[in-house]
Amino acid sequence: MTATAEPGKKDPLIGRKLGDYQLTSVLATGGMARIYRGLDENLNREAAVKVHVAADASGPDSTLTQRFQREAKSIAVLDHENIIPIYQFGIQEGVYFLAMKLVKGHDLSWEMRRLKKSGEKMYPALALGILDQVAHALDYAHQHGVVHRDVKPSNILLSDTGRVILTDFGLVLSPAIDATLGTAFGTPRYIAPEQAVSSHKALPQSDIYSLAIIFYEILTGDTPFTGDSPMEIALSQINDDPPPPRSKNPDIPVAVEREIMRALSKEPKERHQTALEFVNAVRDAYGLMPGDLMPITPLTPINTDGAPSHPTDGHVPTTKVDRSVTPLTPLPAKSARAGGSSNRVAMIGLAAVLLLGIITVGYLLFSSTANSGLPGAPIVLYYNDKEFTMHNTGDYTLNLSRLDFVRGAAGDNDDYSGDRVAGDSLPANACARIVDQSEQQIPALPQCEDVQSKEVLNNVLRYFWRREAADGTEYATYEVWYDERLITRCDTVTMGQTKECRFEWPVPPA
After folding, report:
1. What pLDDT, on the 0 to 100 scale, is given for residue 7?
2. pTM score, two decimals?
């Protein structure tokens, strides 16, 4: 059977038992896999259960099935605290499944988007603390003959225990299989030049290149290569020199830029030979000692749930986070200075931010309690691959000026701001619609005949509710923000799909 639910129908796997795990809800979806929350009642243990939704349709000998099986075997032999642990793997009535630890926390991609949206930057000492743990995981995998090939922020999980976990080994290199494919797999913005030519050319230094791009993005706010299509980005990775990071952020020390540019060399042999060598070289360039690296510091719980990852190339990260903690502590847009004394100053500042955060949370809790009697407004989003409708089912007019829909990094050109709706507002029981220019005659929905605003767009790759973005990256979800706060996440759609997403308007009317 297939694990793909028909539009409007219950997912056929919800309630079903795969191995020891009863599937209770969907955490994330992607082109070749879907992630479920599963419960082992005997052990009272939850897991993230990854299901290969195309296995039965592709046949037992399909390349995708082989990759799924290889992912399970690859993770099983990697016993490391910074690599996602596997609980169980099997096939049941034609459905391949892989049960892994359910990590509580959020991924690095989400944290980087949050910082970018708020105009903040991460302390280098904190960024290096995160990448140091990733480097340990990568070097361990490389020592066991495993090349990850898809190192990117959404595959780096920041757990609420402070541990960083590398996930999604669905693209691990198996020369016996991949050498015959002659195709490139990976995420264009993070892929190494040799891997962009062909996947079988990937080697440990390819993962180091990807790690360097992540650090480049943390420091500058952008990846070195961008474009309007995956092919354009891949060709830039192969042919173009990356812009020096100091051209985008002059606060970066010259010695740090030198190490980043070395890691981004076109020739793998010119890069650092291990991931830890790269991280340690950057740390030394900042004048930091190992003890100066800062741990990740979650704050108080928030009321959101779902999967923040953004699958690419038809793959979903192997474990989806149970989003039960806030973002990392906000950090000012400045570099950490050299030496232990500066680190102590940074830690004092961090403590001050923590105290301020606690006071702020207390105020918000008091305010929300005081206003709990005020009404909210249920919002329903109806959308398919050609049109998007927002329905205000409440009884008062909504001010949309501070509403944002975000797919991928905040600030990209496929984001949609509510102030684009006519009048910046949406009356009670009315709708705002976005339609493709080729489908302007789409009839109004029966639930929503009062259309107050309609916008016509002409590039489906920039539609925030669609899975594939203009740069070729695929996203399982898009985010709904209001007044700089994340409200909810909704599933994206592909061709032929129709979905709904519901949430409660976050603030009372003015």
Report:
1. 38
2. 0.60
3-state secondary structure 34-59: EEEEEEECCCCEEEEEEEECCHHHHC
Burial of 328 (0-12, 13-18, 19+ CB in 10 A): buried
Total Cβ atoms within 10 A of residue 368: 11
* Residue 345 binned pLDDT confidence (cut-offs 50, 70, 90): very low
How does the average pLDDT of the chain come out, rounded?
Answer: 75
What structural domains and CATH numbers belong to the chain? 17-101 (3.30.200.20), 105-336 (1.10.510.10), 378-504 (2.60.40)
Token pair of 189 as six digits: 């913005």
Residue 40 designated active-site: no
Q: Where are the alpha helices (DSSP H) in 121-274?
A: 124-143, 175-178, 193-197, 204-220, 230-239, 254-263
More confident residue, 410 or 44: 44
| H and E: helices and strands count for the chain | 11, 20
Catalytic choice (150, 168, 292, 404): 150
User: Which structure tokens are listed for 100?
Assistant: 């892994």
Spacing of C-alpha 325 from chain mean position? 16
pLDDT 10s digits, 93-112: 888 888 888 888 888 988 88
Task: Decide the pairing of beta strands 431-436 and 451-457.
Answer: parallel
| N-term to C-term CA, the chain | 50
SS3 455: strand
Residue 312 is predicted with a pLDDT of: 30
Predicted pLDDT of residue 309: 34
